[in-house]
């Protein structure tokens, strides 16, 4: 007799509530019950609970290898990219990779990257995960000062104001002692004479160089809108600092060196860490503070950005090619300062006839010291002869229409009494 197989009744899958599963997982995680006991009590399959507690469940919607950074960590990187762009320091592709590499070195974990620095594939995946970013070629401006319009500067003011408002820092602009401007300038050891006396009819008038003709010293200055002067930072050319050269400078000044005597990342970082920040602390300035600088490469480095962030210094880039308007140091200080430097060098030559002015003598020239800076800025405050004729109307027009408090920054730099910072020796 042929046996007829009975068809099994279909059993629908039992649906367990999320609340029950979470309760079971809590029992297991807290150690109150074993997985077997918890599942038996709540009538749940162990396979279900085991799957829900595994990494497979956490990454069930993610295909491919697991991301090296967590969602929270990657969001921090995204916020950093946005903040740097809004402050005028957009980050390159290599800059992003370098930043991630630094983060992974500071937070060690197993990665597929060589030296913790991600490569091309990671960058492509990052861009797919963050479609709000795209690679753009930054605008380069040649003969730019002539092409910068009032609308460009208005847009820059609005952008900076919006960024400060977004980060609850707008009130800083009402405190001139918390707004700073920094810039570098160079002093030639043999400044070219403007005019000399010579016999009428002389066809060629020569001047023997009394110092290396093209050798110059870069000095970093910073001023607050309240009139405070931060001790300068001198950058000497060469590979090492000579004691006899250092001896000529005041103790409060920063001294650094680079191969050509130009500002670089190491010197700017040293200035921020060893000169500017101690000055702010000594003066009891409330943090955070704003520090406006130009777009020089040394000001854009990731190391400097991270250092400023940790110290409560908001580094903001001035709009490119507008130093004749937005850079108070260029507008009101450096021109008379260099004129006085030229006079100081002439006086030194007169007192040291036949000697050659070298780096050893640089710090001993009287006009290098801070009392000269005080005299120079004070002379500008007594009258406006050092300002371009139409500079003040241009600034005033921009400030008035934008309802922008930065007029303290530009105009108080000219009117305020000065405070010299001399730290204890």
TrEMBL record:
**Keyword tags:** DNA-binding
Looking at the UniProt record for this protein, which Gene Ontology cellular component terms does it annotate, in alphabetical order?
nucleus
Quote the InterPro entries the UniProt record gives. CenT-Element_Derived, DDE_SF_endonuclease_dom, Homeodomain-like_sf, HTH_CenpB_DNA-bd_dom, RNaseH_sf
- DNA-binding: present as a keyword of the record? yes
Per UniProt, residues of the HTH CENPB-type domain are: 61-136
User: What Gene Ontology terms describe what this protein does at the molecular function level?
Assistant: DNA binding
Q: Does the keyword tRNA processing apply?
A: no
Can you name this protein? HTH CENPB-type domain-containing protein
- The organism is Aedes aegypti (Yellowfever mosquito)
